[in-house]
Specification:
- The complex is a heterodimer of chains A (757) and B (334).
- Chain A is an alpha+beta fold and 757 residues long.
- In chain A, helix 12 packs parallel to helix 13 and helix 16 (651-670) packs across helix 18.
- The radius of gyration of chain A is 27 Å and the shape is globular.
- Among the domains of chain B are: 5-52, no CATH class; 226-330, Enolase-like, domain 1 (2-Layer Sandwich), CATH 3.30.390.
- In chain B, strand 4 and strand 5 (71-75) form a beta hairpin.
- Chain B starts with a strand and ends with a helix.
- Classes of the chains: A alpha+beta (757), B alpha+beta (334).
- The interface between A and B is medium-sized, with 35 and 34 residues.
């Protein structure tokens, strides 16, 4: 593992720490949404549409009703206004519906929920439900008849534009003008979309994997038309989310309604194939990129336009030009984004939603430009590197892109690369080296936490943050331990429960920054109380001292002149338990951001939306591919990626997170695509056998370098997010390596054998 | 999954007696061995047997691996893993061991039996999802949605306008190439049938094999010799492991000073059923095995391929795979 454990400037200590919840996870003690033991549950099973467009004209239920254990069925015919459309996540767009009406918007839409005494009976009865439809011809994707296209509605200000991109392109010496395509993809978290609902009078408890506890609580209250105080959402562990569990899904309220009707707990687990259509996905994109440079490699014009598929009623789009326009110094920039409405489910956030597809377009085009200039692709990036955001003119709070390239290139052996395409080989295998820039905006949100310290020197912190596999329990524990001067083992962390104070959605890589700052703040407020009591107490060595000079270290309260008092004594002075509640509102956000978070609306200070700095993390991703000279399989024996992402809280889980991102990037470049039947607008490979992801043999070596970076402008603790950046450059790095290996430029993903024959 | 009766057959006679069903895809009685195809398809509601007859007790008598100068005799209840790991099979018949080692995952190979593997159902997505109305294999006469639909993995050889499902297996391709025989036991007693008659040609997609109701595969016999010793199974797939072939080739060569005396060629990932390219074999006999002769054989092997859009790449990939396999086999020390 490559990280600098002796990094003394890191306020978290920079020491690797095993996950404090690791044992619970590997022994099965960690309970996920469907694991929660509840008394006498009924089981719900979804019936989903087999058409993508039309209306439900009726149901034949005799065979289903005859199944032993069948209890009931929910359909649009009998839901009687009990169900309300979930609010769209982070937007005001229209949503597709489920049981609100007879309308079918997309393949696999929920059209009924069967309830039975056992899961098997529910599945059998659901399989025996016959749904009658009035079928209409659907539009599947780009170029399908019947789609409509419109410019997107930018979420924060107009799309980046500067100077005269068209004019500068026209007169430029060296140009690239290319179209790129990325396919639809699905998150496929290992934990299926699973819900357990239990009512106690007017109070509902929902156990469900969620990336946003307070969002679920508030959205569900709206759907069920009750007060949010009646709803408790519990999600102590999430078996992977990747964005799919951030918004509210229809199945949650349907499960709650079923439980209310039956007056007993109900469990609902959507199957793997249903997961492709009852939640969101990463939509396919088309991109047009035009780059122009002078002969010395300096960019003179950048144009990037994207098209993204969405559902009929939703304008959801990721609009990645907001990032690509900020990557390199360029005086003339023009960007645009369009949405294409088709008869599909509504897409949503998926790991680095905007950057993953759009950086593919930009970073492939940069490689093409490097070849057009006969220049090393890393040198081209160096020539165009900038410490100033070319769109806003603000400084980057820190930007260590070239340090990342230099360290990754040294480790990788980039200097051994013969730039000529198809020039390197090992026996029957052609070898290619490719590289690309990775980046991700640094976002931070408000948050609240509650801390208790007992006189035995132990601390318990509670906040409704989300353990989606990233190691959140451990980073919070490290922060508390470090701030209070106690061992990590003395810290108990409670997360994933809306009875705890709110934390923003675990998305946009804000989790580490948001939770560490509020955890740090609540500990510092505890210190204030401990110090105030100490200086007031006649039995304290600090009696009469300035409380601001005291700090917690090594299990003791310490002050000037080597004075020290055991923590136990300093805390015991305050009574049986010291409890502190604190809110943290990051710089640039108003107090209403915290009030809105309590209402389930996350507001963040975003990487490209701040008034002081533009804040991003950067990385460099290098990959070696091998392509068989006859049969053209592409394999990637080696990945080296370097990232500079501020202070790393836990190098152990950070390494794993960045490595997982890089592996997903390989997967996206070489394997993943959700295939469509174009006539029927239906997903074809909706299972983990046919939806291809890499196996261990496909990722023999993935090395991660964490480049030390101390950024005092980004936020007080210098934390940048690392959840998403690991995937961002891989698509382009692989495609660029394939070009180097073969001389063939593949501009549409994934890169499979047939594109190279 | 729909309720079914579970039976366990202690021997072949009892198995045959328990298995009174008619039909194939929709047979009301199904044999269960490793379960790696049957249970999946039952959970997907594609197969809906009333009765499942567990024949794993037959392992005791029918999982032997015999390697003789005449060739291999492999008990049909042997696990794929046991064949893959057998040092004598690896030496005497590399293609057989490789066809196991390159299939599925170790977990599946521990469970799956040879007989079940050979009769594995197609991966055609329209077959495996009953929400599709059209599938002649699942619902005779309903049509084929794959022909105009998503067909990247569908077959290009041996198909017709009723079904383009691809045979997904690996071992079956070796059995086809080397002219294996199948030992069968059933209500009418024991019999041997040529492997190439086990899987039916296109025409009635819902009828996949030629076994009679109650018949169970007992063993496979694969002739040995020089082509077996100089044999290999090459599998091209979308990832390095745990994936079906998009193209594969089972080849065996008997060379005399670089000149082909005999050749065996089977193609996988290409065809409706386990596919032997006999005309390509014949074209090689008497010629030195060179890049040119291998290409010529590959041209012949893929002659008559019919593609449907997404699988347009298959004939070219099939040719390249075969050439690669032949050139690699020629270099073997045998």
């Amino acid at each position: 593992m490559a990280y600098d454990a002796g990094d003394t400037a890191n306020p978290f200590g920079g020491q690797p720490h095993p996950r404090i919840d690791g044992k619970a996870k590997v022994t099965g003690a960690a309970r996920y949404g469907s694991d929660e033991p509840v008394a006498n549950p009924a089981f719900a099973y979804l019936v989903t549409s087999s058409i993508a467009k039309g209306r439900v004209t009726g149901f034949q239920l005799d065979a289903a009703r005859a199944v032993r254990g069948y209890i009931d069925i929910l359909t649009h015919e009998n839901i009687n206004g009990e169900y309300h459309t979930p609010p769209p996540f982070g937007g005001k767009d229209g949503q597709t519906t489920t049981l609100e009406s007879d309308q079918v918007w997309h393949d696999g839409q929920i059209v009924a929920v069967v309830l039975a005494e056992t899961f098997e009976a529910a599945r059998e009865a659901a399989n025996k439900v016959v749904v009658n439809y009035a079928v209409e011809a659907p539009s599947a994707t780009f170029d399908s008849p019947g789609t409509t296209t419109e410019p997107h509605k930018p979420q924060s200000g107009p799309d980046p534009k500067k100077g005269d991109a068209a004019g500068a392109f026209q007169g430029a010496a060296v140009k690239v003008d290319a179209q790129y395509y990325t396919p639809p993809q699905h998150h496929n978290p290992i934990e299926l979309f699973a819900t357990t609902c239990v009512w106690d009078g007017p109070h509902l408890t929902v156990y469900e994997g969620s990336q946003f506890m307070w969002g679920m609580k508030n959205a569900l209250a709206k759907q069920l038309q009750t007060d949010p105080t009646n709803i408790r959402a519990v999600s102590r562990f999430v078996g992977g989310g990747f964005g799919s569990k951030g918004g509210t899904r229809p199945q949650t309220a349907l499960c709650a309604i079923a439980a209310r009707r039956l007056n007993r707990p109900v469990k609902l687990v959507a199957t793997r194939d249903q997961g492709f259509t009852v939640a969101t996905f990463r939509a396919e994109t088309r991109q047009h990129v035009k780059l122009a440079a002078s002969t010395d490699g300096k960019l003179v014009s950048f144009f990037h336009e994207g098209w993204e598929v969405t559902s009929r009623p939703s304008g959801y789009n990721v609009g990645g030009v907001d990032t690509t326009a900020r990557m390199y110094a360029c005086p003339n920039i023009a960007t645009a984004v369009n949405v294409v409405h088709a008869d599909r489910n509504t897409p949503g956030f998926q790991r680095a939603p905007a950057e993953t597809p759009y950086m593919f377009g930009l970073e492939c085009a940069m490689d093409e430009l490097a070849y057009a200039l006969a220049m090393d692709p890393i040198e081209l990036r160096r020539i165009n590197d900038t410490q100033v955001d070319p769109v806003s003119g603000l400084k980057f709070s820190s930007r260590s892109l070239m340090q990342c390239f230099d360290q990754a290139a040294a480790r990788f052996g980039w200097k051994n690369r013969n730039p000529k395409p198809a020039s390197m080989r090992d026996g029957d295998w052609l070898i290619g080296y490719g590289c690309a820039t990775a980046c991700y905006p640094t976002n931070i949100g408000p948050g609240a936490a509650r801390l208790a310290i007992t006189p035995d020197g132990k601390a318990t912190i509670g906040l409704a943050a989300h353990e989606i596999g990233t190691g959140a329990y451990t980073t919070v524990a490290i922060t508390v331990a470090r701030t209070l001067g106690i061992p990590v083992e003395s810290v108990t962390v409670n997360l994933g429960d809306s009875d705890l104070p709110p934390i923003p959605v675990a998305g946009g890589s804000n989790n580490a920054a948001s939770t560490s700052h509020v955890a740090h703040k609540v500990c510092m407020e505890a210190l204030t109380k401990i110090a105030a009591a100490a200086v007031a107490a006649s039995d304290s060595p600090f009696h009469g001292a300035d409380p601001a000079t005291l700090k917690l270290e090594d299990g003791a309260l310490k002050g000037p002149g080597n004075r020290s008092e055991p923590l136990q004594k300093a805390v015991g002075r305050l009574g049986g338990k010291l409890e502190v509640y604190a809110e943290n509102i990051p710089k640039g956000l108003q107090p209403e951001a915290m009030a809105n978070l309590y209402k389930g609306m996350p507001m963040m200070a975003r990487g490209s939306g701040r008034k002081d700095f533009t804040t991003y993390a950067f990385g460099a991703q290098l990959v070696e591919v091998r392509v068989h000279e006859r049969t053209r399989e592409v394999r990637a024996p080696r990945v080296v990626s370097a990232f500079a992402a501020g202070n790393i809280i836990n190098p152990l889980t950070a390494y794993s997170q960045l490595m997982g991102g890089a592996i997903w990037g390989l997967s996206a470049a070489l394997h993943e695509a959700t295939e469509l039947d174009l006539t029927h607008a239906r997903y074809m490979n909706d299972n983990l056998a046919d939806y291809m992801v890499p196996v261990n043999a496909d990722v023999p070596s993935v090395e991660i370098i964490m480049v030390p970076e101390h950024d005092e402008g980004v936020n007080p603790l210098g934390v940048k997010g690392i959840g998403e950046i690991g995937i961002v450059g891989m698509n382009a790095a692989v495609a660029n390596a394939v070009f180097h290996a073969t001389g063939k430029r593949i501009r549409d993903l994934p890169i499979r054998v047939e594109k190279l024959l | 999954m729909r309720p079914f009766t579970y039976d366990r057959a202690e021997d072949v006679t009892l198995a045959a007696r328990a298995h009174t069903g008619q039909g194939q895809t929709d047979a009301p009685v199904q044999f269960l061995a490793g379960g790696t195809t049957l249970l999946d398809l039952m959970k997907l509601d594609v197969l809906r047997p009333d009765r499942v007859v567990d024949i794993t007790p037959l392992k005791a008598r029918h999982s032997e691996i015999e390697v003789t100068s005449a060739g291999l005799r492999l008990g049909a209840l042997a696990s794929m893993a046991s064949v893959e790991d057998n040092p004598e099979v690896k030496r005497a018949f590399p293609a057989v061991a490789q066809s196991m080692a390159l299939a599925a995952s170790p977990q599946l190979r521990n469970m799956a039996t040879l007989g079940g593997n050979v009769l594995q159902r197609t991966r055609c997505p329209y077959y495996r999802d009953p929400s599709w109305a059209e599938c002649n294999k699942r619902k005779p006469g309903s049509g084929c949605a794959a022909i105009k639909g998503f067909n990247r993995q569908n077959a290009v050889l041996g198909v017709d306008d009723r079904c383009i499902a691809q045979y997904p297996g690996d071992f079956g391709v070796v059995l086809a190439a080397f002219g294996a025989e199948v030992e069968v036991a059933g209500p009418g007693g024991a019999r041997r049938i040529p492997f190439h008659t086990l899987h039916r040609p296109a025409g009635q997609p819902h009828l996949e094999h030629s076994l009679q109701p109650g018949e169970v595969i007992i063993a496979f016999r694969i002739p040995g010799g020089a082509t077996a010793r100089r044999s290999l199974y090459l599998k091209v797939r979308d990832r390095q492991s745990y994936e079906f072939a998009i193209a594969s080739a089972a080849v065996g060569l008997d060379l005399d000073g670089g000149v082909v005396k005999q050749a065996r060629i089977g193609l996988g990932g290409m065809a409706y059923r386990p596919w032997r390219a006999e005309a390509a074999e014949a074209a090689l006999v008497g010629k030195p095995l060179t890049e040119d002769s291998a290409h010529a054989a590959a041209e012949i092997a893929l002659r008559g391929a019919v593609t449907h859009g997404h699988n347009d790449y298959k004939p070219e990939l099939g040719r390249r795979t075969l050439v690669r396999a032949l050139m690699q086999a020629a270099k073997m020390e045998a």
